[in-house]
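fyi for ur records
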Amino acid sequence: MGVHGGPDIVEDGLIFAVDAGNGQSYVSGSATCVDMISNLNGTLINTVVYENINQGTWNFDGSDDYIQIGEDLTTLIPGSALSVEGWFKVASLGTNETIFSCVPGNSGAYHWYLRINDSSQLEYAMRSDSGSPFYKSITGGTTLVIDTWYHGCTTWDGSDINLYLNGISDTAAVASSFYISNYNGPKNNIGARVEANTSSPIDEFYGNISSLRYYNKALTAAEVLQNYNATKERFI
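which gave:
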């Protein structure tokens, strides 16, 4: 198995990868996880625990757990394109639950987030320069169920946002151009959003998150499917 999760994972444009089941990223019992690409340290906050299932996963209690990745680093603020993907299993539904987020550290609203919304659908939102209030979001068409592993992926190519579930498009593309205000010190978090100038998480995840990857390019539909097929045997 390769460093990034498997021999067939797309590596072009990959700038961030964490995996609870890869010893180069996380060791059971540690309070730290490591990005295998840029070596950004992440800190397990509160009671995030390791579970020895599906070759390794992090469990979040839906209350105050999250993993803080590279606070005050700008690695995960996109330029002209991005892709975010990961494997997750939710233990409850009906509230907003963050999978991965990037929020300014000093003031202002989120740069982007990937979450399960309160209608039990996968959702991605990002800052945009096209229309007030300067956010664009895309929502999947599938109603998720508890205790089921999913591979979620969103891509943005500078013009359109796409959303995929288990390697397949889950909704029509949403047009979006990009906008980031000049906010310093982004807070990059797994399992919650932590708003500017606070240390209190919101929209906490309840369930398991096993691996996450971030690309500085838009994966093609074929590449999304390739990543899903390269990792699915671990979860399905």
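The first strand starts at residue 14 and ends at 19. thats all i got for now
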